[in-house]
Amino acid sequence: MYAVETEQLTKYYGQNRGIADLSMSVLDGEVFGLIGPNGAGKTTTIRLLLGLIKPSAGFVRIFGRELPAAGGKFYRRVGYLPAEVSYYPEMTGRDLIEYSAGFYSIGSFQWVEELVDRLQFDPDKKVRAYSHGNLKKLGIIQALMHKPLLLIMDEPGSGLEPLVRQELFKILEELNQRGATIFFSTHVLKEVERICSRVAMVKDGRLLHIGPVDELPGRNIRVVIFKVSGSRPSSAALEKMGEARELPSRPGYYRGLSHLPVNELVSYLSRFNLDYLRITDPSLEEVLFHLYEFSPGGGGTPHV
Fold it and tell me: Among 203, 224, 211, 77, which residue's Cα sits nearest to residue 148?
C-alpha cells in the first residue's frame, strides 16, 4: 500500500509555476526524501500533500484516499512540521504543547516528556524568548507527540545545532522502525543518505530523478581541495582533478569536483608533493550544477 501518491501534480501561482507534472509514490513504512535547492518546489509539494493549497492539476492520495475527501479526522494520523513555525508570543512552550495535545488522544505524556528531554528543549519559557532553533524543537514536538502514522516534515534539520539534529534523526529512525512513514524535504544530501531508502530530486518545480539513495545522481562526486608544493600544477593535472581552480581567497590552494573513484583519486594525487589535501562531499547545489548545463533560457541538458 502507498502512504503517499501523486499523479501529474501541478501548481501555478498566477503565471508562476510552483511545480509541474510531479508523479511519485511513497510506500507505507518508507522513509522518503524530497531534495532540491531553495525554490525548487519542495514546500509547495508538501502543502499540496496536506491539502493546505489546491492543485492546478493532478491529484494526491494519502493512504489510498484522494484529497480533499481524506481530510478531517483523517489528519489525526498525520504529523506535520513546516519549515518555519510561528506561535503566540506570550504563551509558554508547555502551554502550546498542552494545547496541541488536546487535538489528539495521546494518553500519557511520557512520550512528550521524552521528546522534550532528547531535544534539549526548555518548555517553560515564553515563545518570544525562543531562538529559531528552539522554535523548531517546539514544532518537532508538536508534530511527533501523537506518534503519527505519516510524518511530513519540511526541512526538519534546519536551525538545529548539530547534536540535536543527530538526535532528531535517531528519533525518526525509531519511529520508522515502529511502522511510521516519514516524508521530509531537505537540501542537505547527508540527511537523506543517513535514513532514506528512496529519494526524489526536484529543481525549478520539476522532477529530475526518483529512486534508491544509492542510485542518486552525483553521489560519486567529491570536492577536492589541495595545495601542491612547488610550481603550479599543469592544466592537464588540474583537469584530471575535477577541473580544479585556484581559490581566490587562498592563493596556492585549488578546488575541484572529481568523478574519480576515491581510490583512483587518492592514487593520482599521491604523485604530487601535497602540502594540504581535503576530500569532502559536495553541496546539493554543486551536484545539480555539475549534472546539468543550463541554457540562457533556463533549460538543461542532463549528464545522467
Answer: 77
| Residue 105 covered by a domain | yes
Q: What is the pLDDT of residue 291?
A: 61
Is 291 domain-assigned? no
Q: Assess whether 115 and 163 both reside in one domain.
A: yes
What is the longest distance spanned by two Cα atoms in the chain? 70
CA separation for the pair 143, 82 (Å, rounded): 9
Short-list 158, 120, 111, 112, CA closest to 136: 158
What is the H or E stretch that residue 6 is in?
A: strand 2-13
Mean pLDDT on 143-160? 95
Decide if 293 is inside a domain.
no
* Domain shared by 173 and 43, yes or no: yes
Check whether residue 29 and residue 131 sit in a common domain. Answer: yes
Top-confidence range, 141-155, 218-232, 267-281: 141-155
Q: Nearest CA to 258 among 287, 221, 291, 286? A: 221
When the pLDDT of each residue in the chain is averaged and rounded to a whole number, the result is 88
Strand partners, 35: 186, 201
Query: Structural domain of residue 276, as residue ranges?
Result: 222-281
pLDDT of residue 72: 65
